[in-house]
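Q: How would the C-alpha cells look for this protein?
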Amino acid sequence: MNFQNSFKVNGQDIPYYHFLYENNLHVLLRRKNYWKARQATLENGMSLLEYLAKETNKQFNFNNVNFPVFERAVMMIIHYFSDNRTHDLDNFIYKPIVDTIRKTRVIPDDNYKNLSLFYVGQPDFKDWLEVYLVPFSYFTEFANQHFYELTDTFISKKQIRSIQEVEEELQKKKEIDYAKLMKGSDFF
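A: Here is the predicted structure in C-alpha cell form.
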C-alpha cells in the first residue's frame, strides 16, 4: 500500500494524509461571504473548488490504485491567520475542503459515521490552511505524538483557570484599554 505519511503506534506504521492550502482562502470561507464568493475566482483565475481540487491532487497521487481508505476518520483543519484579530472558527465554512478530500475516495463519505471534524485556529505570518486526515481509532495517538508540534503552545501557558481568574484578567484588560482611550482622547 502506498501512503503519503505515517506515524508509529506500537511499532506499526499508521498512515495519514496531510494537505496544505497556501492561498488566502479565509475571506471566501467566511460564513457571511461564502454563498456569494463560492463562484468568485481567486487571483490565479480559478474558482475555489478548482483550486482545492488541483492542490489536493497535486499533493498525493490518487490515480495509484493502492492507497489507504479510512472507513472512519478525523479531519483536523488548522486555520492560520496573519492578523491579530480574534476569529471564530464556527464562522467559517470548511465544506469545500471536506468535499474535495472526500472526492479523492480516501473516506467513503463525509457523514457522521465516516468523518469527525476537529478545528484549530493559529496565529501565523500568513493566512493558510493545513488539513490532516487520520484514522479515527488512532486519532488520540496522533494527537499525543503531533498536536503540540502543530500548534502554538505559548498561546495559553496555563491551560485551565478558574472563572474568577478569567474575570479578573478581563477586568484588568478593560481598565488598561479604558486608560489608553482616555490618554489619547481629546474630549476630556
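The radius of gyration is 20 Å.

The chain has six helices and five strands.

Upvote if useful.
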